[in-house]
Amino acid sequence: MATYTVGDLIRHKELQELVAVEPGATVLEAAELMAGREVGAVLIRGAGGAVEGIFTERDMLKRIVAEQRDPKTTRVADVMSRNVRHTPPSTTVEQALQLMVAHRYRHLLVQDGTKVTGLVSIRDLMYSFIVPEMAMAPEGRHGHMRSRAEEAVRIIQSAKRG
Predict the structure, then answer these.
(1) Are the C-beta atoms of 83 and 107 separated by less than 8 Å?
(2) CATH label of the domain that carries residue 45
(3) First-to-final CA distance of the chain
(4) Rounded Cα gap, residues 54 and 77, in angstroms
């Protein structure tokens, strides 16, 4: 487990594509995308696909709900977190978790040089410690539990046949 990297984790995630919106998207559009894709964050990508920021559930709470902004008219570029933390794919899961806990952020962009290869959440990292042999379901705990239940059913059915 000590050599399991965030690059390995990304390769095993079911959701391989990065969920992103343009800076001009409204918070409502971003929230609908997040809800539809069952993710806790979207990247904000500008011209040429460059990552300009990240919009998270925490941003929604602090900068929209608490400030009573209208999600239909507020642009994500106005409320996103601009400083997107990143790490190379060779970072171990343990090192990434230490970074996230120490600096109090929940998402980490994985970059190989200038190429963005993925985004991991603190939940992804925790699951990799708890059940390292299972692929991470994109919808988090509920999907993960469902996939574990399906695997248990397959094992039982196989045992009955054997």
Answers:
(1) no
(2) 3.10.580.10
(3) 32
(4) 9
Residue 123 domain boundaries = 6-161
* 1 part of a folded domain: no
- Per-residue pLDDT reduced to its tens digit, 66-83: 999 999 999 999 999 998
Residue 69 forms part of a structural domain: yes
pLDDT of residue 15: 65
| 78 is a domain residue | yes
Residues 6+ apart with CB under 8 A from 106: 40, 41, 56, 58, 100, 121, 122, 123
Q: Are strands 41-45 and 51-56 parallel, antiparallel or unpaired?
A: antiparallel
Higher pLDDT, 126 or 24: 24
User: Does 123 map to a domain?
Assistant: yes
Contact status, residue 128 vs residue 9, Cβ threshold 8 Å: yes
pLDDT in tens, 148-159: 556 655 666 666
Q: What is the pTM of this model?
A: 0.76
8 Å CB contact between 33 and 156? no
